Structure formats: C-alpha cells, structure tokens
C-alpha cells in the first residue's frame, strides 16, 4: 500500500468530517504537525473535538483552527499561551476538558493499548475528580480516568521511511508516539523521508503498522514559543 502522499490535502482526503475527534501531536510548538493542521483548516471541517497537550499560540499550530472556530472542544493539559483560546472559553464558545499532563499522556497511551480505564492518585479530591468514580487501593484514594481514542491522529516525526516507520527527536517524543497508536487513522508529516531499511530497527519508535498515510515536509518550520536571550556583556 502506498502511504506517501504528495501533499497534506491528499493525505487527509476522505478522513475529515464535521464533529470528529482529532489528536494533534507536539509539545508547545515543538513537533507540531503544522502542515497537516493547515490542511484541516483549508478543509473547513468544523465542530471538532481536539485532543492535544496545548492549543498552540495565536496564529500558529492549533491556533489557526481557533481563528476559524473549527474547534468545539479541547481535551488538553496546558493552554496558557493562547489569548484567542482564553477569549473563546470565557465567552462560552469553546468547551474545555482539562487534564493533568501525566494523566493526559496516560489516557492517550491507554487508548492505544486497548485499556478502557485506569486509576490514578493524581487529581483525587480536586475539581478534576468531580463526577468520576473513585476507589481505594491499599488504603490510598484513586480516581478513575478513561482511555482516549480519536478518529484521526496528525503527528510530526523527525525521520520516517516510506512504510511509515517513524523516529522522533527530543521533546517531540512527548505526545506524538502515543497518539500514533490511539486513532482509527494516523497521518504523519516527516522531515527526513528515507527508504525501507535505512532506519536501524532498534531506533524505530512508531512501527509503520500504525501509520496510514504520510507526507514529506523537508523544510519544517521550527517555531519558538517564548524567546529568551541573555543580556549582552558590557
């Protein structure tokens, strides 16, 4: 099966629909599938539920989908860098399901592993636990969290081969690998595209069986969320 597509629009053709759930990889602006997100914007698909650690920033990443009001609900951990996100939420135009960061990661991993729910101490006795089942184990209190699954996962990889085997680099490993396993269809944008056999099998993080389609993005933008510089010496 040919997995490599010439552009993002063709890679997402037939996979997008109104009201669907989309996982979007990345951490801050590191390892975000910005080319695929732009194609989702161009498609006009709306009323989306998006699962992502954060919502990008204004005008970058998922921020472009907030501009067009294509996102109905966010399942996230941290969204503090996006002013438009805050405005839409406070105006009642956007629904949010907040998660502690580790809990969000484990919910995604659990979904990919076929685990419907698990118990964690994190959030017990707080607003996070409201309406959720709680239970005691060995005298300790835990809250039940459910696994997450999406119709589509869009992810970014540093290297991949034409069979969909993927390698991630540094912070981009935080959410991309687990999201690749937790969706009905996974589409990846890959910075360095190579032929099968050119990646050491021991270095493969996401096996190609999880990846339905991919595109080559050799000049991927490296956005900086907050630029911090040292003062020049006198």
TrEMBL record:
Keywords: Transferase. SMART domains: CoA_trans. The keyword ATP-binding does not apply. The keyword Cell inner membrane does not apply. InterPro entries: 3-oxoacid_CoA-transf_A, CoA_trans_fam_I, CoA_transf_BS, NagB/RpiA_transferase-like. Gene3D superfamilies: Glutaconate Coenzyme A-transferase (3.40.1080.10). PANTHER family: ACETATE COA-TRANSFERASE SUBUNIT ALPHA, KETOACID-COENZYME A TRANSFERASE. This is 3-oxoacid CoA-transferase subunit A. It comes from Enterovirga rhinocerotis.
């Amino acid at each position: 099966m040919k997995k490599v597509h010439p552009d993002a629009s063709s890679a997402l053709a037939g996979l997008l629909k109104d009201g669907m759930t989309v996982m979007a990889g990345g951490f801050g602006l590191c390892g975000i599938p910005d080319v695929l997100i732009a194609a989702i914007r161009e498609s006009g698909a709306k009323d989306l539920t998006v699962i992502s650690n954060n919502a990008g920033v204004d005008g970058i990443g998922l921020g472009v989908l907030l501009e067009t009001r294509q996102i109905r609900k966010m399942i996230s951990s941290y969204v503090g860098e996006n002013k438009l996100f805050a405005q839409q939420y406070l105006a009642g135009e956007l629904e949010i399901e907040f998660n502690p960061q580790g809990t969000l990661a484990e919910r995604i991993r659990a979904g990919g592993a076929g685990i419907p729910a698990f118990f964690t101490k994190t959030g017990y006795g707080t607003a996070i636990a409201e309406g959720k089942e709680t239970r005691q184990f060995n005298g300790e209190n835990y809250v039940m969290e459910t696994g997450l699954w999406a119709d589509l996962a869009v992810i970014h990889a540093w290297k991949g081969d034409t069979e969909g085997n993927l390698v991630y680099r540094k912070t981009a490993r935080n959410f991309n690998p687990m999201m690749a396993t937790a969706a009905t269809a996974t589409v990846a944008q890959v910075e360095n595209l190579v032929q099968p056999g050119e990646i050491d099998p021991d270095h493969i993080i996401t096996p190609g069986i999880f990846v339905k389609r991919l595109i080559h993005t050799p000049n991927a933008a490296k956005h900086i969320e907050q630029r911090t510089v040292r003062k020049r010496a006198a």
